[in-house]
Design a protein that fits this description.
- The structure is a single chain.
- By secondary structure, the protein is an alpha/beta fold.
- The chain has one domain: Spore Coat Polysaccharide Biosynthesis Protein SpsA, Chain A, CATH 3.90.550.
- Helix content is about 35%, strand content about 20%.
- It contains 11 helices and 14 strands.
- Helix 3 runs parallel beside helix 4, helix 7 runs parallel beside helix 10 and helix 9 packs parallel to helix 10.
- It is globular, with a radius of gyration of 19 Å.
């Protein structure tokens, strides 16, 4: 298995510099590219990300991105206003597929985004990135436009924690990487399996179930492996990723959701208890607080009636 991973790393791991923008544009032809930013209270960063994509990838001279959509999942700040002012089309999560009541979670937003985008290639970018570079988009879209055998591409990068390089991605190192190495060792070569920047062909995404919460990245990666095989998956080094870090308790809830997503794929029988108890110190000592673990998954979008009708129309 290690030899297979090493062969995959040599064959399917690239740097953003390996595909100059001119080559990517020449290969694009009639392929439509959609960029989706899932956003919840990201007014401080979403505008800059949108502005970079509009300026560097959506001009007459560089028409790489055909569609830029921010899906606002109930922000209470100015996220929607800032994104629209910067040039994105903003769609409220609850306005998409109103027949199916929305639930909180990043995966829910990504799943619904397939209904309101039209690209043959769909690129997801987190809305909390700082010092955003267009390389995050060109890097992961490039292989899909230049190599017909590639269906799913994840960004890889260094993740500093404060001023310390390489110490971000704590849930990745403590939960996701051990799970993948133990249960899906063919995916052991992915540097950032939980990273929020990845692109895929719509023809693949519409066939995959979407965990509604934090488990979506792990779930899509594992399901893509089983659907199209390892050689159709790839990763591209885009440099450094800077973003807002979660506190320890939020990471604990994220880890529980990711573990349950993995367990669901290992066995449809006994599952972890869908609640996580954490503790906070108050005036009277430690107080327990219990949170639900994301348990719902959305079916492949191809099975949704409204989506099928839209594809025919």
């Amino acid at each position: 298995m290690l030899e297979e991973v090493e062969r995959w790393l040599a064959r399917r791991s690239w740097s953003v510099a390996d595909r100059p923008l001119e080559r990517i544009l020449a290969a694009k032809r009639s392929t439509r590219v959609s960029v989706v930013l899932p956003a919840l209270n990201e007014e401080a960063t979403v505008g800059d990300i949108v502005a970079v994509i509009r300026r560097e990838l959506m001009s007459e001279s560089v028409p790489l991105v055909d569609e830029l959509v921010v899906i606002d999942s109930g922000s209470t700040d100015r996220t929607a206003e800032v994104a629209a002012a910067a040039g994105a089309r903003v769609v409220a999560r609850d306005a998409i597929l109103p027949r199916i009541p929305a639930v909180p979670g990043k995966g829910e937003v990504l799943w619904r985004s397939l209904m309101v985008t039209s690209g043959d290639v769909v690129c997801f970018v987190d809305a909390d990135l700082r010092d955003f570079s267009a390389d995050f988009v060109t890097g992961i879209v490039g292989p899909l436009l230049t190599d017909p055998d590639v269906d799913f591409v994840k960004a890889m990068y260094d993740r500093p924690f404060g001023d310390t390089p390489g110490q971000g991605g704590r849930v990745t190192e403590l939960v996701a990487r051990p799970l993948l190495n133990l249960h899906w060792p063919r995916l052991a070569g992915f540097v950032q399996p939980l990273g929020g920047e990845y692109a895929a062909r719509r023809s693949l995404l519409e066939r995959l179930p979407f965990p509604v919460g934090y488990g979506v990245e792990l779930g899509l990666l594992v399901d893509a492996l089983h659907t199209v095989g390892l050689d159709a998956l790839a990763q591209v080094d885009v440099g450094v990723r800077k973003h807002r870090h979660q506190d320890g308790q939020a990471l604990g809830r994220m880890a529980a959701a990711i573990y349950r997503t993995a367990q669901l794929r290992l066995s449809r029988g006994h599952l972890v208890r869908p609640w996580l108890t954490q503790f906070e110190r108050g005036e009277a000592g430690f107080t327990p607080r219990t949170y639900p673990v994301d348990t719902e998954e959305r079916p492949p979008m191809a099975e949704i009636t409204e989506y099928a009708r839209r594809r025919v129309a």
